[in-house]
């Protein structure tokens, strides 16, 4: 069964460092998303991406965040200068088209120290 | 404002007992509704979904959910819980106006007693 793959599963970084979280969406999917879940809180939308452009971003997705689809398979989330409050589980998701179920990856747990 | 409410943060049931997890949503248009399950250290697995049609939907692992428009609810049920069902359960709304995205509830953590 096709799945969304995220790497690494866990990343520890020092405050102020740049991190790149990687995702390989399902191959025939066209819409890509990042969500995050701070420990003990709900899953929150960060950004959606289609046709090499951001479709929508939330208030959380400030100038420190960026997304990219550098090739035909990867979808990355970059945090330029991490803060303690960026510590969370980050989920990548993809959908084949709009208004369908999203398939989520296993998540990357980011710990900023 | 669009929101999803899961009023029960924690629920404990005995193995073999029935289960109902509550979900209420606030959304102006017709929503798409989902239930996901997250086991410890795992990602989000889709249990079931509602787009339209029959308001009682069947999912994986013996779960079902009923959409009640008049109550803005989409409660998840299982007639007999297994110990392996212990996990966190998230209700989500897929927005159908504007950019498509999910709005999640805060989750309900299910504990199953042997």
Summarize the structure in words.
The complex is a heterodimer of chains A (113) and B (114). Chain A has 113 residues and is an all-beta fold. Helices cover 0% and strands 50% of the residues of chain A. Chain A has no helices and 11 strands. In chain A, the strands form 2 sheets. In chain A, strands 2, 4, 5, 6, 9, 10 and 11 form a 7-stranded mixed β-sheet that branches. A 4-stranded antiparallel β-sheet of chain A has the order 1-3-8-7, with no helix packed on it. Chain A starts with a strand and ends with a strand. By secondary structure, chain B is mainly beta. Chain B contains no helices and 12 strands. In chain B, strands 2, 5, 6, 10, 11 and 12 form a 6-stranded mixed β-sheet that branches. In chain B, a hairpin with a 7-residue loop joins strand 10 and strand 11 (102-104). The radius of gyration of chain B is 14 Å and the shape is globular. The chains are: A mainly beta (113), B mainly beta (114).
Features:
heterodimer; A: 113 residues; 7-stranded mixed beta sheet; 4-stranded antiparallel beta sheet; 11 strands; globular; B: 114 residues; mainly beta; 0% helix
């Amino acid at each position: 069964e096709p799945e969304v793959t995220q790497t690494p599963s866990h990343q520890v970084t020092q405050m102020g460092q740049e991190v790149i979280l990687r995702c390989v969406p399902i191959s025939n999917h066209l819409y890509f998303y990042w969500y995050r879940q701070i420990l003990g809180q709900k899953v929150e939308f960060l950004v959606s991406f289609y046709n090499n452009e951001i479709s929508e971003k939330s208030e959380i997705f400030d100038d420190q965040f960026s997304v990219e689809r550098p090739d035909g398979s990867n979808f990355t989330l970059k945090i330029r200068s991490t803060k303690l409050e960026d510590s969370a589980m980050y989920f990548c998701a993809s959908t084949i088209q709009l208004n369908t179920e999203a398939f989520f990856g296993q998540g990357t747990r980011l710990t900023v120290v | 404002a669009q929101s999803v409410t899961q009023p029960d943060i924690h629920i404990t049931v005995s193995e073999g007992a029935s289960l109902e997890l509550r979900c209420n949503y606030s959304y102006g248009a017709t929503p798409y509704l989902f239930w996901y399950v997250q086991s410890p250290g795992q990602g989000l697995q889709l249990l079931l979904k509602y787009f339209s049609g029959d308001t009682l939907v069947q999912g994986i692992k013996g779960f079902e959910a009923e959409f009640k428009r008049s109550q803005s609810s989409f409660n998840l049920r299982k007639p007999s819980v297994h110990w392996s069902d212990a996990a966190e359960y998230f209700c989500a709304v897929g927005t159908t106006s504007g950019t498509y995205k999910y709005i999640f509830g805060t989750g309900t953590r299910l504990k199953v007693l042997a």
